Amino acid sequence: MGQKLTLRKIGRTFLASAAMGVIAYLVHYVTVKYLRNSAAVILAIISGMISYIVFVILFDVITEEELKELPKGEKLLPIYLKAKKLKNNIFGKKISK
Prior knowledge:
The protein is built from 4 helices and no strands. It is mainly α and 97 residues long. It starts with 6 loop residues before the first helix and ends in a 6-residue tail after the last helix.
């Protein structure tokens, strides 16, 4: 436990949350025209969950060590590592400080 909370980490978390909110809103806005409101809300929630996970990985909000500390984190680690590898292949490797 006891991970260091920095302004950079808070900012990245906020960006991931804001991006998720925009995507969820847009999905609801578009789908409510064609589906019932309840179906549009469910699609917006699912798209929000998926987009938040993508943005958390994209913005480096969570580290391997932090993921291991979470409940079931060891089971999520292979998926996380594959996603990080894909991110690095697409955007290039980031040099850590």
